[in-house]
Amino acid sequence: MKIILTNDDGIQAPGLHNLFLGLQDIGRIIVVAPEGAQSGVGHRVTTHSPIRVNEIARDRFSVAGTPADCIRIALKEICPDADWVISGINSGANLGSDVYQSGTVAAAREAAILGRRAIAISQYIGKDHQIDWEITKYHAGSVLKMLIAKNIARGFFWNVNLPYPLRKDSDLEYGFCDLDTNPHKYEYQKEGNNYIYKGTIHERPRDPGKDVDVCFGGKVAVTCIPIGLIYSQ
Predict the structure, then answer these.
(1) pTM for this one?
(2) N or C: which end of the chain has fewer CB within 10 A?
(3) For residues 24-37, b (16+ Cβ closer than 10 Å) or e, as one string?
């Protein structure tokens, strides 16, 4: 099995390193990730200027571009026969409306657009806390191996959010759920000609049973997201 790993926090980010460690026993891992932080860039791609790519070690490529750029180059040039694309582990949740601005999620979406199976995975961080990457690695490996063993229809990808707090002996439950479409609660503070964003993920609205509620309630939120629009009557 060949698996491409990427992220939006940059190739040196601890989340990407621990994702590699958690999956290295199930196949060949090829890392194709941004050379620096690209958080919040959404699905932006580079089409009118060259994209510099450096092979910094065997099967490890640094890209001067966005997460979506990384996947385009990975699947078109570096490893066109990859079986899976996995993006993460993001430092912070990507729940609900976050999926439209997240570079982590955009990488998985781009892979699905190109006809590949893909997963985006993120770790929610509790207020005033930090991630214990050893514990996150342990649980991320478990949920990812479970999803890799499942079938997913063409044109869909998985979005996974690990809850907080986690312990290594946590017996985690999985909540397969829909996206919460509520907007964030935020405002802007005006200082001269500048507007400064003020908001926090922890107090965001949530609908029962949707991904925000599932993750904040202590379960792994697992959402199957289509690349196209699905309308229901």
Answers:
(1) 0.94
(2) C
(3) eeeeebbbbbbbee
Domain ranges of the chain: 2-226
Predicted local confidence at residue 157, as pLDDT: 97
Q: Which of 74-88, 127-141, 196-210 has the highest mean pLDDT?
A: 74-88
**What's the CA angle centered on 142, arms 138 and 144, to 5 degrees?**
115
